[in-house]
Amino acid sequence: MRSTNKRFISALACASVMTALAIADPMGITKTHQVVQAATDNVPARSAGVDVSSWQGTNLTQQAKSGAKFAVVKVSESTNYQNPHAQGQINNAEQNNMMPMGYHYAHFGADSNRAVQEGNYAVNSAQQAGLP
């Protein structure tokens, strides 16, 4: 993978982690974009958190008791997969006073059109899962 793509993927991951995901086309050809409103919650700097996907269950109580202040939930991958546990994981994170966040596992490579499709899919998946 070219370093430009790695930088873009890193930027997308960072945007997801901040829960304010704006879809932007690195080639400058996107006509529209979507923005998901950022969560109003925040966590102190250097707080512990957990990364969960469909491999983990929806109960995050133990992680919260161990000091996790946030949960980064995999909500989608490519343009055809949504984590079936995402909504439950997000809800349980909130119930345990953890800030929920989401991420998308991308597969678009150097294809900017595919990147836009995946970005839109990621935003829709995050909204369906209940991310603010």
TrEMBL record:
SUPFAM superfamilies: (Trans)glycosidases. Residues 1-24 form the signal peptide. Keywords: Glycosidase, Hydrolase, Signal. Belongs to the glycosyl hydrolase 25 family. InterPro entries: GH (IPR017853), Glyco_hydro_25 (IPR002053), Glyco_hydro_25_AS (IPR008270). The keyword Disulfide bond does not apply. The lineage of its organism: Bacteria, Bacillati, Bacillota, Bacilli, Lactobacillales. It is an enzyme of class 3 (hydrolase). It catalyses: Hydrolysis of (1->4)-beta-linkages between N-acetylmuramic acid and N-acetyl-D-glucosamine residues in a peptidoglycan and between N-acetyl-D-glucosamine residues in chitodextrins. Pfam families: Glyco_hydro_25 (PF01183). It comes from Lactobacillus paragasseri. Coiled coil: none annotated. Its EC number is 3.2.1.17. This is Lysozyme.
